[in-house]
Design brief:
This protein has about 140 residues and is mostly helical. It has 2 domains: about 5-75; about 85-144. The protein is about 85% helix and about 0% strand. It contains 6 helices and no strands. The protein has helices at about 5-15, 15-35, 40-60, 65-75, 85-105, 110-144. Helix 2 packs antiparallel against helix 3 (about 40-60) and helix 5 (about 85-105) runs antiparallel to helix 6 (about 110-144). The chain is elongated. It starts with a helix and ends with a helix.
Length: about 140
Amino acid sequence: MTEDDLGERFIELNANADFMAARLADFLRNCMRAAAASDPSGPVARASEDFRFLLRLLAKSQSASAYELISKAVEDLAVEERGDSLDGAVIYAAQMGMRFLVETSCADNAARGRASRRQTEFLDAIKRIEEAREELRQQYAKRR
C-alpha cells in the first residue's frame, strides 16, 4: 500500500461527524488566531491546511449535515469555567471581548449598535475581573 493509499484510507475512516467537527473547530481556531496575530501568516497557513483537509473529509462523508458539523464544532470551541471566580471572570471577559470583536468586524449599520453594546458589556466584564481579584486578595489576607 502506498502513502497516498494510506492517506485516502485515513480520510475514508475519519469522514464522520465527530472527527470532521473537530477539524472544523481547528480551522476556526486558526482563523481566530490569525485575526488576533500581528503576523497572521502562520495561522492562515494552518487554517488553509485545515480547510483543505476538511474538504477532503466532506467529499468522502455520506451523512454529516452542515448544521451537525457546525454545532459540534461550536461545542468544541466553548470554554467552561474551570476554577475559581477569577477564572470565571476572565473567561467571561474573553467571551465578551470576542462578541465585541465580531460585531466590530461587521460592516452593516445594525452592527454599529451591537458593537457599542458589546463594548460596554466587555468593559463591564473587565471590571468583574478586578472585583474577583480583590475578593481573592481579601480571602487570602483572612487566611494569614
